[in-house]
């Protein structure tokens, strides 16, 4: 299997491939035609004759190819054989480029279209195909220029280049303008074109008006692929109206209604995956792969399912399978980069994204991933460099400004409020949600520009609030565990010590970017006596670097643990590697107050290796006795094996370990502790944590074995 991280020769296998292709810039001077953004369609629009839709989701007509594996690759081979007999046939060359696009070989397809346009610079079908290939590569700026040129040359009844242009326009931060022009074009064309109707329906669905989009999505068509997408749209409508339990049946109907068709099986998998039926989705994706192994959509869908289920290694293998099958798979390389980033392998991630840039040098999607990676690694210099390249390649993309302002906010700098508000667009809910988050204003829906439709205005506001609820998720983390400790006398006096037992239930609730609320309940058995403790706390971030918090709790019963306890803490992220923290605790035993001062430093040696050093300064003031101050030092080293699995070793030395003071051991000298803790991730949600610890006290040695279960929800 292709493994892009460890061997540059393998990783850049596509370099030799793409080096033979024509540079992307060859026709830049020829295709910069006028941009169609406001001119209404010409009077007397006619319904176009049936034709191949170059702007569809890069899929072939089911009726045009036999139902057998490898049908597109076979058709491509036949086409090239025909071209050898008729080398001047332009339609054969265009059909070859279409086949390449259906195989997601958009780089090669674009080069074929450019070769055609050198000889026929005003060929509308070639311009439309070229612009669509650029669109699927994420090069929206050049796609818009090319398609605007195609529209200026197209006949009044030629809708395909206009539909393609509207798709790009929406991506370029002008979604409302694209929606208005789509409605105007639909009116001029007699409201009969199915491809345009589905485009309008998808635009309406983006703001939650899927029901209103149904009439647009139900137009008659002989295009089987379009019929599949229409059926998927209707199925999603049923599910959104409360029919989630019907998802498996709807997917089965979608897959069987059109026979053994690759697109219908992929659509069924998408429908299931979207609504949480990952196992069933994987089965449909596999069936689609069996039908057409040369296509990438199902392979990528399967990889995303594995990622969602927390099987990151398997997901990485699936993404690698996609690029092994098609080295031009842009989404495959992005997937490899994402999985590598999640596993902490930044080197592999950068290598994959470097390769992606050789395939799509101006791709907005690739630049976004590169910025995400630079942000995670906290490499400010690289982030600014990548952002500058992104802005140069796609200056009209609203996410250039959004990501720049997000970075400013993360560094504690002020954001450009007027520039952010200028990006608001009722038909662009994702952009609106990001603006609301950056401005920390959940009520920004009231500032959205108004359209001519009150229903659309209301829907845009509702959708914005829904996206905000998704973008600001909350999570719950629960851990339940038990620890058994065996004590053995270590002095010549000997003696017998009863075993220790401890059971606990702890957890926290966190709002991303907001407060964290914690609780901790513990039951102890020590020296033949029982005790129970409950405490709770809150942690509040202040900007990007500071956190402050406090906790309060005490004994439910039992004399050897603190009768009550109070703590405050502050944390500071000094650099991307160095974190500092200070905590003060006041512990009130029955007759003995204890003050603790706990400075801590953590160091990120490597994305997978981290260590923490902590010093406990414990000052006790027992009644009727002299006060006492003791020191205890703690150090650990943790290695991240996978995203939810790690190995940690730890060591402590000094006076009695202050992390869990027991009254009759306070102030005891010569304490030492060493141990190991394993976190074994079952998936991204669950982990089993076995541990072992050896402690040496003045009077006894202690062997402790623990087991806990951690879950994240």
Q: Can you tell me about this structure?
A:
It is a single chain. With 713 residues, the chain is α+β, with helices and mostly antiparallel strands. Helix content is 44%, strand content 24%. The chain has 26 helices and 14 strands. Helix 8 runs antiparallel to helix 9 and helix 23 runs parallel beside helix 25. The longest helix is centred in the middle third of the chain and has 18 residues.
* Structural class computed from helices and strand pairing: alpha+beta
Strand percent estimate: 15-25%
Indicate the radius of gyration in whole angstroms.
31 Å
Give the terminus-to-terminus CA distance: 34 Å
Total helical elements: 26
Helix content: 40-55%
Could you give the order of strands across the largest sheet?
A: 1-2-3-4-5-6-7-8-9-10-11-12-13-14
Q: Which blocks of ≥5 consecutive residues have pLDDT under 50?
A: 1-67
Report the major sheet: 14 strands, antiparallel, barrel
Return the average pLDDT rounded to an integer.
Answer: 86
- Overall geometry comes to elongated
Total beta-strand segments: 14
């Amino acid at each position: 299997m292709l493994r892009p991280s460890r061997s540059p020769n393998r990783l850049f296998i596509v370099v030799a491939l793409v080096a033979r292709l024509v540079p992307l810039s060859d026709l830049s001077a020829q295709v910069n035609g006028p941009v169609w953004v406001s001119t209404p369609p010409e009077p007397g629009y006619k319904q176009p004759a049936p034709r191949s839709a170059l702007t569809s989701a890069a899929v072939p007509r089911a009726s045009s190819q036999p139902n057998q594996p490898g049908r597109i690759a076979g058709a491509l081979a036949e086409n090239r054989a025909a071209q050898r007999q008729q080398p001047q046939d332009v339609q054969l060359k265009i059909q070859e480029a279409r086949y390449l696009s259906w195989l997601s070989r958009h780089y090669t397809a674009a080069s074929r279209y450019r070769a055609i346009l050198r000889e026929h610079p005003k060929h509308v079908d070639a311009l439309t195909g070229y612009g669509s290939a650029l669109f699927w590569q994420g090069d929206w700026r050049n796609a818009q220029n090319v398609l605007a040129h195609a529209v200026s040359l197209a006949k009044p009844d030629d809708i395909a280049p206009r539909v393609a242009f509207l798709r790009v326009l929406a991506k370029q931060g002008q979604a409302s303008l694209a929606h208005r022009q789509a409605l105007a074009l639909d009116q001029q064309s007699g409201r009969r074109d199915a491809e345009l109707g589905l485009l309008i329906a998808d635009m309406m669905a983006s703001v939650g008006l899927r029901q209103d989009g149904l009439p647009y999505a139900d137009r008659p068509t002989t295009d089987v692929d379009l019929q599949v997408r229409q059926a998927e749209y209707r199925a999603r409508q049923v599910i959104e109206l409360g029919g989630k339990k019907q998802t498996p049946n709807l997917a089965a109907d979608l897959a069987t209604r059109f026979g053994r068709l690759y697109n219908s099986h992929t659509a069924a998998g998408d429908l299931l995956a979207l609504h949480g039926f990952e196992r069933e989705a994987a089965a449909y994706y596999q069936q689609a792969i069996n039908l057409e192994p040369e296509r990438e959509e199902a392979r990528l869908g399967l990889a995303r399912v594995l990622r969602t289920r927390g099987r990151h290694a398997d997901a990485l293998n699936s993404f690698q399978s996609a690029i092994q099958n098609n080295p031009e798979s842009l989404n495959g390389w992005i997937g490899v980069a994402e999985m590598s980033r999640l596993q902490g392998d930044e080197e592999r991630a950068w290598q994959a994204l470097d390769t992606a840039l050789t395939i799509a040098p101006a791709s907005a999607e690739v630049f976004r991933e590169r910025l995400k990676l630079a942000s995670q690694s906290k490499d400010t210099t690289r982030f600014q460099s990548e952002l500058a390249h992104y802005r140069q390649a796609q200056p009209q993309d609203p996410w250039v400004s959004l990501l720049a302002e997000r970075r400013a906010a993360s560094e504690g700098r002020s954001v450009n409020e007027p520039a952010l508000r200028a990006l608001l667009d009722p038909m662009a809910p994702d952009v609106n949600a990001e603006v609301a988050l950056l401005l920390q204003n959940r009520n920004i829906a009231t500032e959205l520009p108004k359209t001519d439709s009150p229903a659309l205005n209301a829907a845009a506001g509702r959708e914005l609030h829904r996206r905000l609820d998704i973008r600001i998720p909350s999570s719950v983390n629960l851990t339940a565990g038990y620890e058994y400790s065996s004590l053995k006398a270590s002095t010549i006096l000997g003696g017998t010590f009863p075993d220790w037992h401890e059971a606990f239930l702890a957890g926290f609730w966190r709002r991303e970017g907001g407060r964290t609320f914690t609780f901790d309940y513990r039951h102890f058995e020590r020296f033949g006596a029982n005790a129970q403790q409950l405490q709770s706390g809150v942690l509040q971030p202040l900007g990007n670097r500071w956190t402050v918090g406090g906790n309060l709790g005490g004994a439910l019963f039992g004399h050897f643990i603190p009768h009550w306890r109070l703590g405050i803490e502050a944390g500071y992220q000094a650099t991307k590697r160095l974190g500092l923290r200070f905590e003060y605790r006041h512990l009130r035993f029955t007759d003995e107050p204890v003050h603790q001062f706990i400075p801590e430093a953590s160091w990120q040696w490597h994305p997978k290796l981290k260590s923490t050093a902590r010093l406990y300064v414990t000052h006790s003031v027992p009644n009727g006795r002299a006060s006492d101050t003791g020191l205890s030092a703690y150090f650990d080293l943790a290695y991240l094996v996978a995203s939810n699995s790690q190995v940690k070793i730890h060591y402590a030395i000094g006076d009695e370990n202050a992390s869990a003071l027991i009254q009759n051991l306070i102030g005891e000298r010569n304490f030492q502790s060493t141990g190991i803790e394993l976190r074994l991730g079952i998936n991204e949600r669950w982990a089993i944590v076995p541990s072992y610890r050896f402690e040496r006290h003045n009077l006894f040695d202690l062997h402790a074995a623990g087991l806990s279960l951690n879950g994240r929800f």
